From TrEMBL:
Domain Acyl-CoA dehydrogenase/oxidase C-terminal: 279-433
Protein name: Acyl-CoA dehydrogenase family protein
UniProt-listed PANTHER family: ACYL-COA DEHYDROGENASE (PTHR42707), ACYL-COA DEHYDROGENASE AIDB-RELATED (PTHR42707:SF3)
Domain Adaptive response protein AidB N-terminal: 8-161
Provenance organism: Rhodococcus antarcticus
Length: 541
């Protein structure tokens, strides 16, 4: 019918390379992994295909189903996933997002992995077990025997989801299970017990409130041993094929991240093996947390990039009031503001990936920088991500509010990244704890950001204000969010002043550091080079 002619609608954003992002590629080279550019482009082109995007949609809409028993009444404690989920897992594992950096630890390996993880943005849910598998390796190395046995399987590029004797598996996926309903982030309040057994194992009894990817092959978990809170490796299936006593109680009904199951579980005498020293469970698992926190930053920056790209693509193809949306001055202001936020997040993320790579290689200075800069960046970037996604959704108008646009799915994912591995208050207080208890970390941070001094007066002034904030210890906990936000912004600003085009650095310093900025995106002051910003960050539009 003539009334149903389709006019002025935006074509799907498919058939592109999701890694075609200047800040991402420049960071890859700058942080020592330029050799991985072909791998990054290959995965980026795959992520941009209609097939990969559709797999992400199907996996998110087809929620996992819990099966506690079989038809005869036998306990199975299994979760059924859609085939799309397994296809996504297969691709992620085949491209080494879970463990290639450990299996082939050349310089820049973890930088390459971070960039590829950012480019593979088709579904956030399945990347949760990918992230945990990546993160479990350094913590597991606290038990040399377990590490020697399991690390080759945790880093193998073959996804093998069957629940059977680990000795017969071609590859393993790992999970983590720390929080309990009475403690939440206060894991030292955990009540799960671990009783030593004659064979050197421990028997675990307790209830865990959040266990992500509950049918992973192995988990790191915390429990109270005789010597205090300790870290344990708990397999789902024991040697010989017997099921471990890990009972799935229910799956959580979550805001987002729906393709990935999260469960309450009970340990009913489950077999666990000590990892690290007894009573030092939190210290043992810190290495895992470092990796998953970095993945939160990667996920948030990748989500921002996706949101900006979708909004810019829409504005370049949609007309209103006789002109393309992208040519409207106010829309250009919004898009450029979002693009600056995205570039700042990506640039900081890649610098942290480089620090992570060098810290793993033994560089103590980079380890100190990672300690504080990761905490402050995790706080700030993950706080900004939902706002960026919401503003980008609004750029599409009512079309953005419809599930078919994929913008609601993106929007639902963003809050998780701020909650996972320490919500806002936890991350902010952790950063200040590093400043107070590990002053060498602040020295490393200042040594990093001071490399940008003299290049922009607004940056210099912001750094001076930050130093004054840090000299006052009065009411520091009350001011924690303010101080940590300043730490994050100065860190981002230092990187942009040194590495980004002048237009991007100028816009950042004029707003985030000089405060000539409103409370919403799209409030950039006049006099900035918006053309240069939009050309750089939205080349795919």
């Amino acid at each position: 019918m003539a009334t149903h002619d389709v006019l002025n609608q935006v074509p799907p954003l498919v058939g592109h390379d999701t890694s075609d992002h200047a800040a991402l590629r420049e960071g890859l080279v700058r942080e020592g992994a330029g050799w991985a550019l072909p791998e990054l482009e290959e995965l980026g082109r795959l992520a941009g295909t209609e097939h990969a995007q559709q797999l992400g949609r199907v996996a998110e809409r087809s929620r996992p189903v819990l099966h506690t028993h079989d038809r005869y009444g036998n306990r199975t404690d299994d979760v059924e996933y859609d085939a799309a989920y397994h296809q996504l897992m297969t691709t992620a594992v085949a491209h080494g997002l879970h463990g290639a950096a450990w299996a082939d630890p050349r310089p820049g390996a973890h930088v390459a992995r971070a960039a590829k993880f950012a480019a593979w943005n088709v579904d956030a849910g399945h990347t949760c077990p990918i992230s945990m598998t990546y993160a479990v390796v350094p913590a597991l190395r606290a038990n040399a025997a377990l590490s020697a046995q399991l690390e080759p399987l945790l880093t193998n590029r073959e996804y093998d989801p069957g629940l059977r004797d680990p000795a017969t598996k071609r590859g393993l996926v790992a999970g983590m299970s720390m929080t309990e309903k009475q403690g939440g982030s206060d894991v030292r309040a955990n009540t799960t017990t671990a009783t030593p057994q004659a064979d050197g194992s421990h028997s675990l009894v307790g209830h865990k409130w959040f266990t992500s990817a509950p049918v992973s092959d192995v988990f790191l978990t915390l429990a109270q041993a005789p010597g205090g809170l300790s870290c344990f490796l708990v397999p789902r299936v024991l040697a010989g094929g017997a099921r471990n006593a890990v009972r799935l109680v229910r799956l959580k009904d979550k805001l987002g991240n729906r393709s990935n199951a999260s469960a309450e579980i009970e340990y009913d005498g489950a077999v666990g093996w000590l990892v690290g020293e007894e009573g030092r469970g939190v210290r043992t698992i810190v290495e895992m947390v470092n990796m998953t926190r970095l993945d939160c930053v990667i996920g948030a920056s990748s989500g921002m990039r996706t949101a900006v790209l979708q909004a810019t693509h829409h504005a370049r193809h949609r007309s209103a009031f006789g002109a393309k949306l992208v040519d409207a001055p106010l829309m250009r202001n919004v898009l450029a503001d979002l693009a600056v936020e995205s570039e700042a997040a990506t640039t900081a993320m890649m610098r942290l990936a480089g620090a992570n790579d060098r810290a793993i290689g033994g560089d103590e200075g980079e380890a100190a920088l990672r300690r504080i800069a990761l905490a402050v960046t995790k706080y700030h970037v993950c706080k900004q991500a939902p706002a960026v996604a919401g503003e980008a959704l609004e750029c599409l108008g009512g079309n953005g509010y419809i599930e078919d646009s994929d913008m609601p799915r993106l929007y639902r994912e963003m809050p998780l990244l701020s909650i996972w591995e320490g919500s806002g208050n936890v991350a902010a207080l952790d950063a200040l704890r590093a400043v107070a208890r590990e002053p060498h970390t602040l020295d490393a941070y200042l040594g990093e950001v001071e490399r940008a001094e003299g290049a922009d007066a607004r940056f210099d002034a912001a750094l001076d204000r930050l130093k004054k904030e840090l000299t006052s210890v009065d009411d520091l906990e009350h001011r924690a969010r303010r101080v940590v936000e300043q730490l994050a912004l100065v860190f981002q600003g230092s990187l942009l002043v040194r590495h980004a085009p002048a237009a991007v650095a100028d816009a950042f310093c004029a707003t985030r550091l000089d405060r000539d900025w409103g409370r919403a995106y799209g409030t950039l002051p006049t006099g900035l080079d918006l053309d240069a910003i939009l050309e750089r960050t939205a080349a795919l539009g």
